[in-house]
Amino acid sequence: MTVSALDWRPDILEGYRQHVFELGPDPDGEGEAAAVLVRREPTTDDPVRGAVLYVHGFADYFFQTELADFFAERGHAFYALDLRKCGRARRSGQTAHYVSDFVLYDEELDLALAAVAEAHPGLPVLLVAHSTGGLVLPLWLERRARRAATAPVAGLVLNSPWFDLQGSPARRGVMTQALRVLAKASPHTAIKAPPGPYGGTLHVSGTGEWEFDLELKPLAGFPVTVGWLNAVRRSHAALHRGLDLRVPSLILRSDATYFSTAYSERCERADLVLDVAQIARWAGCLGGETTIVPVEGARHDVFLSLPEVRKRAYEVLDDWLARHTADS
User: Can you spell out the DSSP letters for 239-265?
Assistant: First the structure.
């Protein structure tokens, strides 16, 4: 498939267009799978220095236009991918964000990267991902590296990547063993968990400043299923064995974790979803040059933090980009 053949149509975001990749029958038996590539329409005639491909997290989709504007202002064409059964790509009857193996994402990631590379031949592509996307992308990159197919990827930026399961080692071990059994018998069974306050800290209907589609990103998230979490744990194990991504990586995270089911002001300045100590612990598994920066007062999505906090995060990213794209 060539870029010229892509059917770019208006997106749900003003100033963006989208193309739907039809992926055929879902290997997990939920109809026809699709993924949606979104691009920010250029607003100037400035030369493009590179491109960015962004991947969202669980119970999420691309709506972070401020992040796209940041990259565009620095000469990067911006693209984002809603993975199969996620966001724009989810179809009627499909379990939100469900996949039994993260390897299945390789199909749409390969298609998206090929489309971006063809649109910007010879230019470097920076991969950016949040949370679960920050687990998906490194493992996909590792598989590409084994095929000697690193180019045109020139770097990786991970925003609070999900590198391990929350909780004590004993609890993680018991949970992992149980998931292996349950995923075979009842993969779509939901794991009951109380809703947290995170979504409300982001959306304008709560204490946040962001507008997003509550059908695509509910304030309480989507149910976590046994089969999907089993796929997550297999991916964690692969990461923990160590990767060799062969590109520099920047990891941004909060400086604090605060697990709570009730809102307080502390919820505005901590990661309510992941254990940031685990992110720090496993960052070295990526291989190659890795820079990890804790951002004081950051939320789980660092780039959706309070204004002064995300200003600091963008300064860190800007500095890293300047040092790693100077010759591009």
Answer: HHT-----S-EEEEEES-B---SS--G
Using the predicted structure, report yes or no on whether residue 327 has a pLDDT greater than 70. Answer: no
Distance CA 235, CA 102 (A): 7
pLDDT band at 141 (very low <50, low <70, confident <90, very high): very high
Encoding tokens for residue 244?
């060799």
H or E segment and range at residue 114: helix 106-119
Buried b or exposed e, range 233-257, using 16+ CB within 10 angstroms: bbbbebbeeebebebbbbbbbbeeb
Collect all residues with Cβ–Cβ distance below 8 Å to 293 and sequence separation of at least 6: 250, 251, 252, 253, 316
Q: Which of 41-55, 237-251, 268-282 has the lowest mean pLDDT?
A: 41-55
C-alpha 131/C-alpha 294 separation (Å) is: 15
Closest CA to 231 of 184, 278, 296, 276: 184
Q: Which domains does the chain have, with CATH numbers?
A: 3-324 (3.40.50.1820)
